[in-house]
Design goal:
This protein has 263 residues and is an all-alpha fold. The protein is elongated, with a radius of gyration of 25 Å.
Length: 263
């Protein structure tokens, strides 16, 4: 029996929530890497910033707008963490565009001014040339200063969005695909939120009952026929909460379904 249009729309939205969350987490991890590498290299190369903005951040911004900014979704959600997250993502995209522009000026124009200065010192160039060079060097100095400031603000916006994302996860805790994605990307979560963040996020999402997340993900896996993975999650849920009746019931369903599948 094929799913109804309503179920297809719900599934698509669930998948795009997952896509948005993972895109953001990967973007945050990438920015952290670029900043760390840039500190040892004396700056982040323009090509890296350009690729980051035009690919990862652009796609993240577009995905967020599709999810959280359409008229019907905005009306349905009202004032929500998801809408605030969308605003922050849009802001950090445009903020990183400023970083990109200042990076371009510093990387591409500074060497040209340096070459012109050297050539000027070896010739009898007009006074106007000296004035032009001094102005150009002031522009580059200002771009260097603005690059540091704009990058610091971009990092601040990412930090704020990372906090708001925690609330978005709570709002979408009934999305089994989202829980599965979090369980499958524990290392990425550790990179962004710190060691042991998966358990902390699940506690926030399910009011301290982390087993509920494992059960929800296991039920989704059962529907897809991923019996072994679903069984592992059920067992993990029972380790976390030995009296969890949903986990026990789901394990029974899994055993019946797996037996029928083998038969």
């Amino acid at each position: 029996m094929s799913p109804t249009p309503e179920l297809r729309r719900e599934r698509e939205e669930q998948e795009r929530v997952v896509s948005t969350v993972l895109r953001f987490l990967r973007a945050r991890a990438k920015l952290n890497d670029m900043v760390a590498e840039g500190a040892s290299k004396g700056g982040i190369p323009f090509d890296e910033i350009n690729s980051f903005v035009e690919n990862q951040l652009f796609e993240l911004k577009e995905e967020c707008h599709w999810l959280f900014r359409s008229r019907e979704r905005a009306d349905a959600m009202g004032a929500s963490s998801a809408m605030l997250f969308d605003i922050l993502v849009g802001s950090l995209f445009h903020q990183c565009m400023k970083v990109k522009e200042n990076s371009y000026q510093v990387e591409r124009y500074a060497p040209k001014y340096a070459a012109l200065r050297k050539a000027h010192q070896q010739s009898d160039a007009a006074k106007e040339v000296k004035t032009f060079l001094e102005e150009g060097e002031r522009i580059i100095a200002r771009s260097r200063r603005m690059l540091r400031q704009e990058l610091a603000y971009a990092i601040e916006l990412f930090h704020e969005a990372t906090i708001v994302l925690r609330h978005v996860l709570v709002e979408h805790r009934d999305n089994p695909l989202l829980v599965r994605a979090l369980l499958d990307n524990a290392k990425l979560l550790d990179t962004v939120y710190g060691a042991g963040s998966l358990d902390a996020l699940l506690r926030e999402m399910y009011g301290g009952n982390t087993a509920a997340g494992y059960v929800l993900a296991a039920g989704s896996l059962l529907e897809g026929g991923w019996f072994d993975h679903a069984r592992d999650l059920c067992k993990q849920a029972r380790r976390l909460d030995p009296r969890n009746r949903q986990a026990a019931q789901l394990l029974n369903k899994l055993n019946v379904a797996a037996h029928a599948h083998l038969s």
